Amino acid sequence: QVQLVESGGGLVQAGGSLRLSCVASGPSFNIGAMGWYRQAPGKQRELVATIASAGFTNYADSVKGRFTISRENAKNSVFLQMSSLKLEDTAVYYCNVWTMSPFKAYWGQGTQVTVSS
Predict the structure, then answer these.
(1) Which among 109, 83, 79 is positioned nearest to 12, based on CA atoms?
(2) Least C-beta-crowded within 10 Å: which of 15, 60, 61, 78?
(3) Pairing between strand 111-116 and 10-13?
(4) What is the spatial distance between Cα 86 and Cα 12, in angstroms, rounded to a whole number?
């Protein structure tokens, strides 16, 4: 069973920056795509950014130009650098990882990001 541990959330003023980290651990696995999703109060969980094992990235329109996703394969880690944060970025952010064998998705426990005015 793959376990994901997230860190880096917190309280930040609008315009500020935060960096989220997620580390995957567990039995032998082959990680494929990794990503970040978020869920604001009263809203559905939504995609923030994904990164394929080869490094291709995809971003939600709302975060393009402000957020950067990256990964370190040797450490089974994925990161989300968030800049120019807005009030509407406030949400619980979840790390998501797909393993290739078996083909399965895993989720982290979530980390709160709160942007204040």
Answers:
(1) 83
(2) 61
(3) parallel
(4) 10
Residue pLDDT, tens place only, 20-65: 999 998 876 788 999 999 999 999 999 999 999 999 999 999 999 9
Cβ–Cβ under 8 Å, residues 11 and 117: no
Cis-peptide into 41, omega within 30 deg = no
CA atoms within 13 A on the CB side of 63: 25
Tokens 């990882």, residue? 97
Query: How many residues in total does the chain contain?
Result: 117
List Cβ neighbours of 14 (8 Å cut-off, separation of 6 or more): 85, 86, 87, 115, 116, 117
